[in-house]
Amino acid sequence: MTLARVAAAARRATALPLVLAVAAIDVDDGRSVGVDDTAVLPVASASKLLLLAEVARRLETGELTPGQPVAVAPSDVVHGTGLLCRLGRSGWTVEDLCWLTASVSDNTATNALLRLVGLDATATLAADLAVDGLALNDRVRDERGPGDPPVFATGTARSLAELVAHAARSTLTSPGASRRLLHWMRSNTDHGLVPALVAHDPYATCFPEPLPGGLLVANKTGTDPGVRADAGILIGARRVAYAVVAHWDTALGDSTERAAVHAIRDVGRTLADYAGQAPHPTS
């Protein structure tokens, strides 16, 4: 089993009325494949990994502390994914907001963290890590007006996969920041895209060490009209960082959305096959 099979699975979607961008990186030997992986696309909440990486960096340098209180401002509150807009408390800690952002993609928590660190800081980190194809363009909004950026975030499958690979290699500014990001990703509750058809243990406490005979997943998904994105890592006999981004015209209807999800899951099965097989000198 080679990474070429992952690319082949992605190319099966070329007949569909959508773009399916895929990047896969073997974390340990550096081999990688990509299909449309440098295309800049809307990536929705998968981009929140970049925000979490910047918060993780600051927690490790001491610029922030895990228990530091953060008041949720009225301007932070938006609907969509998450819990905070439905809960009564307004005071949370930095780490509370990170867990909420990672686990349920909480939009209000995301906005509070963005207000804390600033969009410019995420752009600087992306440039420092050479993942500057990934950009948070704005805070999360319930509605976008003519003066607002048209989408929350843009990126490439390659930049998302490289960001995850940095965390897996402990090169995300520091080993401590890398560990934090991976463990936040591990809490993600949405396994409906890449991991959906993959047998894996979402609760194994050995993470990020491999589970003998099994697969582990840590990921972050994104969903917007016309967008499905998933970036993460599969850990088995091999470790593979990945990103899959589907983009289509919403005027094409629900059938195209279903086709996009099926295509992403097909790539996911191939990624799992690769991660589950022990490395071979010729693979």
Q: How would you characterize this protein structure?
A:
This protein has a single domain, classed as DD-peptidase/beta-lactamase superfamily (Beta-lactamase, 3-Layer(aba) Sandwich), CATH 3.40.710. The mean pLDDT is 95. The longest helix has 23 residues, at 254-276. It has a 5-stranded antiparallel β-sheet, with helices on both faces. A 3-stranded antiparallel β-sheet has the order 3-7-6. It is 36% helix and 18% strand. A hairpin with a 5-residue loop joins β1 (19-26) and β2 (32-35). It is built from 8 helices and 10 strands. The chain has 283 residues and is of the alpha+beta class. The radius of gyration is 18 Å and the shape is globular.
Give short descriptive properties of this protein.
283 residues; alpha+beta; Beta-lactamase; three-stranded antiparallel beta sheet; globular
CATH-defined topology: Beta-lactamase
Overall strand count: 10
Helix content: 25-40%
Please tell me what the overall shape is.
globular
CATH architectural designation: 3-Layer(aba) Sandwich
Spans of at least 5 consecutive residues whose pLDDT stays below 50 are: none
- How many domains is the backbone divided into? 1
Average pLDDT taken over every residue? 95
**Main sheet properties:** 5 strands, antiparallel
The N- and C-terminal alpha carbons lie at a distance of 6 Å
What is the beta-strand fraction?
15-25%
CATH class: Alpha Beta
How would you spell out the order of helices and strands?
Answer: HEEEHEEHHHEEHHEEEH
Order of neighbouring strands in the sheet with most strands: 2-1-10-9-8
CATH-level-4 superfamily name: DD-peptidase/beta-lactamase superfamily
